Amino acid sequence: MIQIVGLAHSAVREGRERIRAAARQLKLRLPGMRITVNLAPADIPKSGAALDLPIILGILTAAGGFSARCIERCLAVGELGLDGALRPVRGALSIAMHAAASPDVDWLLVPFGNLREAGAADGIRVRGARSLTDVLEVFEAAATGRTSPALLRPKELPRSGGTGAAASEGEPPDLSSVRGQSSAKRALEIAAAGGHNILFSGPPGSGKTSLARCLPGLMPPLSRREAVEVTAIHSVVAPPGRVGGLLRNRPFRSPHHSVSEAGLVGGGPGPRPGEASMAHRGVLFLDELPEFSRRALEALRQPLEDKVVKITRVNGTAVFPAAFMLAAAMNPCPCGFGGSDGECSCTPEVLARSERRLSGPLLDRIDMLADVPAVSWRALSATGGGETSAQVRARVIAARREAVGRGVVCNAELDPVQAEKACSLDHQSMALMETAVTRLGLTARGYHRTLRLARTIADLSGSGRVTVGAVAEAIRYRPPGSAERPPALARQAAGM
Ligand SMILES: Nc1ncnc2c1ncn2[C@@H]1O[C@H](COP(=O)(O)OP(=O)(O)OP(=O)(O)O)[C@@H](O)[C@H]1O
Ligand SMILES: [Mg+2]
Ligand SMILES: [Zn+2]
Question: Under CATH, which number does the domain 2-157 receive?
Answer without folding.
Answer: 3.30.230.10
